[in-house]
Design brief:
Rossmann fold
Length: 445
């Protein structure tokens, strides 16, 4: 697959890393030679020092025969314009990163598609979805719903209260049990577990289950004492905070602490009256105490500074807040933040890159999520007629090492998968894979 990426910035760099694992034909365009030099030494790709808005540069990059053109520069207008040019030249699909929420309205999608922009990526909106999913379940690190919750994947940090530690998975998660452990993150290692593997204290375990069994999962992992989130305190009033607040459940009460007085005035104008905006520093402990941090169930740090967000979440934890969320835009800090056990980590560029990642797949892939914490992919494949995966029971398919099937959705009903399961055409199947080229999985579907 021939892919052109415009913009050697955070999203473009992370996306190149994801795509290069699959040995794709990648060309990266950027006007800055220094940025290009940094990435070309780390990944197997071609670079072109030029403006993505140049027709000559696009032709030189091979836009006439490209399968996918992705423009993720900081300039929204350049992203849109270069996508239109690439499509006109001959590229099959184009993707543009945008900064304007009005462009993601349903009626705007067709408008941009007609202009030659196949898909729009608004990182702040994608991050807001992840933030709110984390807040809805205070005891879960990550949640991913498939088909409106017919299947649910839960990433859960295991503590001393967990009932299922130190037992072989085959004894606690058999074919008739209402959950599967599809992956385990232990320290720096990711494990796709077998029946003899065990869950250990402080593992981050990924459970696949159905929605009606979520309370059961909560019980066996010992998280029933975690209170549900009703009061949320947010540090930083940027675009991500605005999108998150606008899409939060109505039962949540929100306070935003923002240092910039002018931005506070803007927030008061664009947010509902039930959102309290406070001008101050979210690291100021007396201010946090005055604003009721000790009776707050969730603290969300969304400033542009990763160190500030990490330290603020650690402070909130010490003051008794159970659920903390930190936006960490520097990928080098993500592992450190996770080791400090501060809660849910939000990285907009990784979320956006993972969202774009699915567009490179040829099969009928509905959804792909790259789990930074586990260095693994979760993908939802729709099974085609006559697909290889339908010819034998799961145990006889010969799936590559590092791959497991977590569950499937058939006619709207979620079900878990075991070795005897026979997958059928039209099923939506959840695949979890670690260090495996997605193309190897694609051929089964």
């Amino acid at each position: 697959m021939k892919i052109i990426i415009a913009g050697a910035y955070a999203i473009g760099t992370h996306l190149a890393k994801l795509l290069s694992r699959n040995n794709e034909n990648i060309t990266l365009i950027d006007e800055n030679a220094e940025r290009l030099a940094k990435i070309s030494t780390d990944f197997d790709l071609l670079t072109l020092e030029a403006s993505p808005g140049s027709i000559k540069a696009l032709r030189e990059a091979g836009a006439e025969s490209a399968d996918l053109y992705i423009s993720v520069t900081p300039d929204e207008a350049l992203n849109l314009n270069s996508c239109m040019l690439a499509k006109a030249i001959g590229t099959k699909k184009t993707v543009a990163k945008i900064d304007s929420p009005e462009y993601i309205a349903p009626d705007a999608q067709k408008f941009f598609s007609d202009l030659g922009v196949s898909s729009l990526i608004y990182p702040e909106m994608l991050a807001a979805v992840d933030i709110n999913n984390g807040l809805k379940m205070s005891w879960v690190r990550q949640r991913w719903d498939v088909h409106d919750g017919a299947l649910v994947m839960l990433g859960i940090k295991l503590r001393e209260s967990c009932e299922i530690l130190n037992q072989p998975l085959k004894t606690i998660s058999g074919p008739d049990d209402p959950y599967h452990i599809v992956a385990i993150k232990r320290g720096d290692d990711t494990i796709i577990p077998g029946g003899n593997d065990e869950l250990k204290l402080y593992d981050l375990a990924y459970f696949m289950t159905t929605r009606n069994y979520i309370p059961y999962i909560r019980k066996i992992v010992g998280k029933e004492h975690y209170v549900d989130v009703k009061n949320v305190m947010i540090m930083g009033g940027g675009k991500t905070a605005v999108r998150a607040v606008k899409t939060m459940p109505e039962y949540m009460d929100v306070k935003i602490i923002e240092q910039d007085e002018h931005r506070c005035e803007e927030l008061n104008n664009i947010l509902e009256d039930n959102v309290l905006v406070i001008n101050g520093d979210g690291r100021d402990i007396p201010l946090l105490t005055e604003e009721g941090i000790r009776s707050t169930q969730a603290f969300v740090a969304l400033t542009g500074n990763a160190e500030t967000n990490i330290l603020a979440c650690l402070t909130a934890k010490r003051m008794g807040v159970r659920k903390t969320v930190a936006m960490v835009e520097n990928l080098d800090y993500v592992a450190m933040a996770e080791s400090l056990d501060i809660g849910t980590i939000i990285n907009k560029k990784a979320i956006a890159a993972g969202h774009i990642y699915q567009m490179m797949l040829d099969a009928d892939v509905m959804n792909v999520k790259f789990l930074n914490s586990a260095n693994a992919d979760v993908a939802e494949f729709v099974v085609g007629e006559g697909a290889k995966v339908t010819r034998k029971p799961v145990k006889d398919l010969g799936l590559p090492p590092g791959v497991t099937i977590g569950g499937l959705v058939r006619e709207g009903e979620g079900m878990l998968v075991n070795g005897n399961t026979q997958i059928e055409p039209g099923d939506s199947v959840m695949i979890f894979c670690h260090n495996v080229n997605m193309k190897k999985i694609e051929k089964f579907f």
